[in-house]
Amino acid sequence: MLSLGQLITWGLVYYTFPLFVVPMTEELGWSRSAMFGALSAGLLTAGLCSIPVGAWIDRGHGRLLMTGGSVLAAVLFLLWSRIDSLPMFYVLWVGLGACQAVTLYEPAFAVITRVYGPRYKQAILLMTFLGGLASTFGIPFAQFLIGEIGWRLSLDVMALIVLGVAAMHWLIVPGPQEEAVPIAAPKPLEEGGAKRSPLATAIRVPAFWGLVVAFAGYGLAFSAMSFHLIPLLDDRGVPIGVVMAIIALIGPMQVVGRVLLMVGQRHITTIQLGALIYFAFPVSMGFLATGITEVYPLILFAVVYGVANGLVTILRGMAVPEFIGPEGYGVVSGALTMPTNVMRAAGPVLASLAWGAFGGYTPVLWGLAVIMLIAACGFAAAAFLSKRA
Fold it and tell me: What is the pLDDT of residues 59-105, one digit of tens each?
């Protein structure tokens, strides 16, 4: 049930924004850059909220946070459907960013680790298996609604669906009265040493900072690709039917990657998984930067990028306890999520600025490939330092 909530929330609250840009621009006269600024404000808010959210979930408040976030998202969708002021649109998206901080994968992973303890890896695999179809569900569904009933009524329908997710969260997410299942026995306290908080301990682990670089670089590249892939392919004259097919293929490829990992999880380590992912990302972006426009090369890009994107979500869930330690999963994961979401917020804006400065998307893609190579170095450093600890 929590996985179904992730499918709906990612699909409707995160992925659908670009679909509303054109009809809102036509009706309200706002510029695209101004609208993407609101999105970035929301993503930045999500990043700033991640540490306190993780700490609250560690204390057992996941039910209240995830339910409240879904209710607030539904209310904000209703307000969005009646919007006519750009400043209010920014305020609204700051609120939606806070909603994302308490409803998407990171808080869900923290809840999972409290419930499943040592079995958290299998639970995360199952959750991300279903969540990988979010863009495949959300984008065509929202596009269909906008085409049939217009963008304002579409938001009303989406609000009702998200309200259903709120009810689901209230019924299934455990409250503070339910004891957490430990992932592993905590490390014994050194004699004479003062007990530190899990976050204070984590930031003293060198591998933590390697993961910051790895996941922040991914966050920037992922958001830039998520919100610019459609205009990128459109600029190259790719037919809209092919564009939609390529976008729709990425979601199932995420699921394919997760299925392959579920089958072979006993034969691949977290380090090997990370090496595979951080090799695939710069290769796929460099391949797209060569200017491909034919269907089959674009399918190959979607397969490689989609599989890697599906696996990195699982990597984020598994690397924290394995590289840093089992204590305080929520707050430590939140500390890693904050710079990741800040970079997610910067991604669409930086890609837009680079597109304007260079007059096209090819330099943007090469830049993203370089960023992912730097992120790969961060993961390699984290893996090496975790083995030395």
Answer: 888 889 999 999 999 999 999 999 999 999 999 999 999 999 899 88
| pLDDT tens digit sequence for 257-304 | 888 887 777 788 888 888 999 999 999 999 999 999 999 999 999 999
Task: Label each residue of the chain as H, E or C.
Answer: CHHHHHHHHHHHHHCCHHHHHHHHHHHHCCCHHHHHHHHHHHHHHHHHHHHHHHHHHHCCCHHHHHHHHHHHHHHHHHHHCCCCCHHHHHHHHHHHHHHHHHHCHHHHHHHHHHHHHHHHHHHHHHHHHHHCCHHHHHHHHHHHHHHHHHHHHHHHHHHHHHHHHHHHHHHHCCCCCCCCCCCCCCCCCCCCCCCCCHHHHHCCCHHHHHHHHHHHHHHHHHHHHHHHHHHHHHHCCCCHHHHHHHHHHHHHHHHHHHHHHHHHHHHCCHHHHHHHHHHHHHHHHHHHHCCCCCHHHHHHHHHHHHHHHHHHHHHHHHHHHHHHCCCCHHHHHHHHHHHHHHHHHHHHHHHHHHHHHHCCCHHHHHHHHHHHHHHHHHHHHHHHHHHHC
Over residues 127-176, the pLDDT tens digits come to 877 877 887 788 889 989 999 999 999 999 999 999 999 999 999 888 76
Which of residues 362 and 356 earns the better pLDDT score?
Answer: 362
